């Protein structure tokens, strides 16, 4: 896919020495990309995703006689399953951009989840009294704080004691998994606080039809505002603007995607069993409409919020600028007066905080904290960031790319479960896809340089 | 009045390096080096590869931490432990290696570490780009590629970015380590023009170069280093190029120069 795009641009490069003829001869596709300022990689990733989705759907249809992938129910589940990995992948982008790596996120997730569960079930009820409404809030905050501290500690070892991140976090991978086991002596701790488990999704952990439309409306408003704002800024300083048709196209596509997403999550209804239970409990009128939409799951909203916040952090703040400058040239960044060590520590602390948040989502989704929670997550998170275009050589990467990468990884995973592949084959496919993605990426960069 | 003023300024050096030493793994890269810089003065620092010029200057710019010696700025003892400290004293450096972040654009590089922010605390990219256009217009009027990562620029354009970054923040002391190494004749002339202009503004400049002709054209004084030691200081008008070459190659100090610890012992 990437291949095709680069070939297009290679063709358009050829007439470069014909001077004025350049714009005329430029491929229509290249011109389209230039006008809209859409990254070719982004389109490539969306294309890959569509191929994966349609491929699994058709495979199910023809081979198993049961096509389940492109059903609202599966896609809704897919969004929920992506959340935990997606949240961590946004942080992993910054880690990899600065030429580091974090192999410990899976274990830290397990440790934070266990820590939160213990706070929630064993410690806080003794202090606040059983069933106190603040218990889950405090537990969540403690979990995120614990993640932050662990991340900051890793960051300290890496930045100030100059131990390579690979080693520090490889050690962390073992240490925190072991620590999670010791915390509860290997027990699984069930979590039954209703408000807490809502954070993991499920019928009760979704916001329903109306609220989802409100979210969709806000998203459309945000898209329109940002297009208008960026155009106004460029006009103010007389910088070149995009052509009007490109602005309108981007607005239409952006809002269309938002509305489509809302329609999708609203077309997945509550299961019959739950509807019956609610009717029995007198919460639903049995003669009314029994098609009750899930709407957006709460973890998906968390992921969207994290994605927006991290994009803002990476592109609009000093911290983000420093992260990319350090990734591009650490020595230059230091000479420019950036406190590289302190920024590195903060990056790992942020990674830890996001891992803590992912631990909330993961344990709330399972309704329990187990010792094995988050095993192998580090690989999925790194794969998501790398598939999303984060360069292991540093300096390049986007948050939206990492989230899309997480969707790709999760699509492969659920797709293979749906069509009944063995766990062994699943692992092999995921591994091969990762290597292939990095290869395509290398190819893409070599040609575009 | 103005003469008195000039003398007054002359009386106090902008920078005074006293007995600086630094060693790496037992090798004295800079050994007991002292020199000074007046406001509006250009001092050329000459020497072979490995003579210790860049190392000496990197102590001043905060990239290296000295083992011994003192730095005075405006007659007061200065504490310089990292590049941020140096910048706080108005010391800006153009490094030989350019030291730009390749993956971000020219404006981001100009403001690296000192970004302009909006009242919301976010990066003010448009304002930075507007300022970047101004300062780059002064240095390299043809430069238009503000949106592209610096990686895509030519050597000369990257050099202009590095120079622009140093003059953007009203430096008082400018260190230029081989500023014209990557430049063509026209751009070299622009840099020379710039140095004259900055000199008039009273900025003190350390000019490090291999190219003795460059230095003779631009510098008021030269300081020569050899094997980490200072061979001597001389006014450019007092010495010939051959004599300076003798200082560089043999460490032989001509009569009109002030010898340093690295000067060859007179054999007669």
Structure in words:
The complex is a heterodimer of chains A (449) and B (268). Chain A is mainly alpha-helical. Chain A has two domains: 1-36, no CATH class; 37-206 and 297-448, ABC transporter involved in vitamin B12 uptake, BtuC, CATH 1.10.3470. Chain A contains 19 helices and two strands. Chain A has helices spanning 2-13, 22-25, 28-36, 40-64, 72-97, 105-128, 135-159, 165-183, 194-198, 208-236, 244-266, 272-280, 298-316, 318-328, 330-335, 340-366, 377-387, 399-418, 423-448; strands at residues 189-190, 368-369. Residues 1-9 of chain B have low confidence and may be disordered. Chain B is globular, with a radius of gyration of 19 Å. Chain B is an alpha/beta fold. Chain B is built from nine helices and eleven strands. In chain B, the strands form two sheets. Chain B has a seven-stranded mixed beta sheet, with helices on both faces. At the A-B interface, α10, α13, α14 and α15 of A face α3 and α5 of B.
**What is the SS-derived class of chain A?**
mainly alpha
Q: Helices and strands of chain A, in N-to-C order?
A: HHHHHHHHEHHHHHHHHEHHH
CATH architectural grouping of the largest domain in chain A: Orthogonal Bundle
- Estimate percent helicity of chain A: over 70%
Termini separation of chain A (Å)? 18 Å
Briefly note the CATH topology name of the domain at 38-209 and 224-229 in chain B.
Answer: Rossmann fold
Q: DSSP helix count of chain B?
A: 9
Q: How would you describe this structure in keywords?
A:
heterodimer; A: 449 residues; mainly alpha; ABC transporter involved in vitamin B12 uptake, BtuC; two-stranded antiparallel sheet; disordered N terminus; B: 268 residues; alpha/beta; Rossmann fold; seven-stranded mixed sheet; four-stranded antiparallel sheet; 9 helices
Produce a short descriptive summary:
The complex is a heterodimer of chains A (about 450) and B (about 270). Chain A is mostly helical and about 450 residues long.
């Amino acid at each position: 896919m990437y291949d095709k795009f680069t070939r297009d641009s290679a063709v358009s490069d050829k007439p470069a020495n014909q001077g004025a003829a350049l714009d005329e001869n430029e491929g229509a596709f290249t011109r389209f990309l230039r006008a809209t300022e859409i990254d070719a990689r982004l389109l490539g990733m969306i294309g890959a995703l569509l191929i994966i989705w349609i491929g699994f759907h058709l495979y199910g249809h023809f081979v198993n006689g049961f096509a389940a992938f492109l059903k609202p129910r599966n896609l809704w589940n897919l969004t929920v399953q992506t959340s935990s990995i997606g949240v961590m992948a946004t942080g992993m982008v910054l880690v990899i951009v600065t030429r580091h790596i974090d192999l410990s996120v899976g274990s830290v997730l397990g440790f934070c989840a266990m820590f939160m569960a213990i706070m929630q079930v064993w410690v806080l009820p003794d202090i606040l009294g059983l069933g106190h409404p603040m218990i889950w809030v405090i537990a969540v905050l403690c979990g995120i704080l614990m993640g932050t501290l662990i991340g900051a500690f890793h960051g300290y070892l890496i930045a100030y004691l100059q131990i390579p991140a690979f080693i520090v976090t490889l050690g962390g991978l073992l240490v925190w998994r072991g620590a999670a086991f010791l915390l509860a002596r290997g027990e699984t701790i069930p979590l039954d606080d209703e408000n807490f488990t809502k954070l993991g999704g499920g019928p009760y952990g979704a916001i329903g039809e109306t609220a989802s439309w409100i979210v969709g409306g806000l998203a459309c408003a945000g898209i329109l505002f940002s297009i208008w704002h960026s155009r106004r800024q460029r006009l103010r300083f007389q910088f070149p603007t995009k052509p009007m048709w490109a602005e309108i196209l981007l607005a239409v596509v952006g809002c269309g995607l938002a509305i489509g997403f809302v329609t999708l999550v609203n077309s997945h209804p509550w299961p019959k069993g739950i509807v019956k239970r609610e009717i029995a409990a007198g919460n639903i009128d049995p003669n009314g409409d029994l098609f009750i939409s899930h709407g957006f799951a709460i973890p998906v909203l968390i992921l969207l919020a994290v994605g927006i916040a991290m994009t803002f952090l990476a592109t609009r703040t000093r911290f983000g600028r420093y992260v990319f400058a350090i990734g591009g040239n650490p020595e230059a960044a230091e000479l420019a007066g950036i406190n590289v060590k302190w920024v590195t520590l903060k990056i790992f602390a942020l990674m830890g905080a996001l891992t803590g948040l992912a631990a909330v989502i993961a344990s709330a989704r399972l309704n329990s904290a187990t010792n094995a929670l988050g095993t192998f997550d580090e690989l999925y998170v790194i794969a998501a960031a790398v598939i999303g275009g984060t360069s292991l050589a540093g300096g390049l990467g986007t948050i939206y790319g990492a989230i899309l990468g997480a969707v790709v990884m999760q699509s492969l995973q659920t797709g293979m479960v749906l069509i009944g592949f063995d766990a062994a084959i699943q692992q092999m496919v995921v591994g091969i896809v990762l290597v292939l993605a990095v290869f395509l990426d290398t190819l893409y960069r070599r040609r575009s340089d | 009045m103005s003469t008195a003023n000039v003398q007054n300024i002359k009386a106090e050096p902008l920078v005074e390096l006293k007995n600086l030493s630094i060693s790496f793994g037992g090798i004295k890269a800079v050994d007991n080096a002292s020199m000074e810089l007046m406001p509006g003065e250009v001092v050329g620092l000459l020497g072979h590869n490995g003579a210790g010029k860049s190392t000496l200057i990197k102590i001043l710019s905060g990239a290296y931490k000295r083992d011994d010696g003192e730095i005075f700025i405006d007659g007061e003892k200065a504490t310089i432990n990292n590049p941020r400290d140096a910048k706080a004293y108005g010391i800006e450096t153009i490094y030989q290696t350019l030291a730009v972040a390749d993956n971000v654009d020219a404006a981001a590089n100009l403001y690296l570490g000192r970004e302009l922010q909006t009242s919301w605390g976010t990066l003010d990219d448009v304002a930075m780009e507007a300022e970047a256009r101004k300062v780059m217009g002064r240095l390299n009027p043809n430069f238009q590629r503000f949106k592209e990562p610096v990686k895509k620029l030519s050597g000369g354009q990257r050099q202009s970015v590095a120079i622009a970054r140093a003059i953007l923040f009203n430096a008082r002391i400018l260190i230029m380590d081989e500023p014209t190494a990557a430049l063509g004749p026209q751009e070299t002339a622009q840099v020379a023009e710039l140095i004259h202009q900055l000199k008039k503004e009273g900025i003190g400049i350390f000019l490090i170069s291999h190219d003795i002709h460059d230095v003779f054209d631009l510098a008021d004084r030269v300081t020569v280093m050899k094997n980490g030691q200072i061979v001597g200081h001389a006014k450019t008008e007092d010495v010939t190029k051959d004599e300076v070459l003798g200082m560089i190659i043999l460490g032989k100090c001509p009569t009109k120069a002030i010898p340093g610890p690295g000067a060859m012992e007179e054999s007669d």
